[in-house]
Amino acid sequence: MHHNKQATENAKEEVRQILGLLDAHMKTRTFLVGEQVTLADITVVCTLLWLYKQVLEPSFRQAFPNTNRWFLTCINQPQFRAHLV
Fold first, then answer.
1. From which domain of life does this come (predicted)?
2. C-alpha distances in angstroms, 71 versus 1, 9, 40, 60, 85?
Protein backbone atom coordinates (compact mmCIF):
# COMPACT_ATOMS: atom_id res chain seq x y z
CA MET A 1 0.00 0.00 0.00
CA HIS A 2 1.37 3.40 -0.99
CA HIS A 3 1.78 5.84 1.87
CA ASN A 4 1.57 9.58 1.23
CA LYS A 5 3.23 11.26 4.20
CA GLN A 6 1.96 14.74 3.28
CA ALA A 7 -1.65 13.54 3.00
CA THR A 8 -1.32 11.83 6.38
CA GLU A 9 0.03 14.99 7.99
CA ASN A 10 -2.74 17.09 6.41
CA ALA A 11 -5.38 14.69 7.70
CA LYS A 12 -3.89 14.73 11.21
CA GLU A 13 -3.90 18.53 11.17
CA GLU A 14 -7.60 18.54 10.23
CA VAL A 15 -8.32 16.10 13.06
CA ARG A 16 -6.28 18.27 15.44
CA GLN A 17 -8.38 21.32 14.54
CA ILE A 18 -11.68 19.48 14.94
CA LEU A 19 -10.65 17.91 18.24
CA GLY A 20 -9.60 21.36 19.42
CA LEU A 21 -13.09 22.69 18.74
CA LEU A 22 -14.65 19.70 20.46
CA ASP A 23 -12.28 20.09 23.41
CA ALA A 24 -13.29 23.72 23.87
CA HIS A 25 -16.98 22.77 23.71
CA MET A 26 -16.52 20.01 26.30
CA LYS A 27 -14.66 22.22 28.77
CA THR A 28 -17.81 22.87 30.83
CA ARG A 29 -19.94 19.91 29.76
CA THR A 30 -20.24 16.24 30.61
CA PHE A 31 -22.09 15.35 27.41
CA LEU A 32 -22.43 17.14 24.08
CA VAL A 33 -26.02 18.21 24.69
CA GLY A 34 -27.66 18.22 28.11
CA GLU A 35 -26.90 16.14 31.17
CA GLN A 36 -27.19 12.65 29.74
CA VAL A 37 -26.10 10.66 26.71
CA THR A 38 -27.91 11.69 23.55
CA LEU A 39 -27.80 10.64 19.92
CA ALA A 40 -25.19 13.39 19.43
CA ASP A 41 -22.80 11.66 21.85
CA ILE A 42 -23.40 8.26 20.27
CA THR A 43 -22.78 9.59 16.78
CA VAL A 44 -19.58 11.45 17.60
CA VAL A 45 -18.16 8.68 19.79
CA CYS A 46 -18.77 6.15 17.02
CA THR A 47 -17.07 8.49 14.57
CA LEU A 48 -14.03 8.85 16.82
CA LEU A 49 -13.82 5.25 18.02
CA TRP A 50 -11.69 3.93 15.15
CA LEU A 51 -9.39 6.96 15.30
CA TYR A 52 -8.88 6.46 19.02
CA LYS A 53 -8.25 2.72 18.62
CA GLN A 54 -6.15 2.66 15.46
CA VAL A 55 -4.76 6.06 14.47
CA LEU A 56 -4.33 8.65 17.20
CA GLU A 57 -1.48 7.79 19.51
CA PRO A 58 -1.81 8.81 23.19
CA SER A 59 0.69 11.65 22.75
CA PHE A 60 -1.57 13.17 20.06
CA ARG A 61 -4.72 12.78 22.18
CA GLN A 62 -3.03 14.28 25.24
CA ALA A 63 -3.64 17.79 23.90
CA PHE A 64 -7.41 17.30 24.24
CA PRO A 65 -8.14 16.47 27.90
CA ASN A 66 -11.80 17.53 27.81
CA THR A 67 -12.48 15.47 24.71
CA ASN A 68 -10.72 12.47 26.24
CA ARG A 69 -12.69 12.78 29.49
CA TRP A 70 -15.96 12.98 27.55
CA PHE A 71 -15.00 10.07 25.27
CA LEU A 72 -14.07 7.84 28.23
CA THR A 73 -17.20 8.89 30.13
CA CYS A 74 -19.34 7.93 27.15
CA ILE A 75 -17.74 4.59 26.35
CA ASN A 76 -18.03 3.58 30.00
CA GLN A 77 -21.79 4.20 30.10
CA PRO A 78 -23.78 0.95 30.22
CA GLN A 79 -25.64 1.80 27.01
CA PHE A 80 -22.30 2.15 25.19
CA ARG A 81 -20.50 -0.77 26.79
CA ALA A 82 -23.28 -3.13 25.78
CA HIS A 83 -22.63 -2.43 22.09
CA LEU A 84 -18.97 -1.50 21.67
CA VAL A 85 -16.46 -4.17 20.78
1. Eukaryota
2. 31, 23, 12, 15, 15
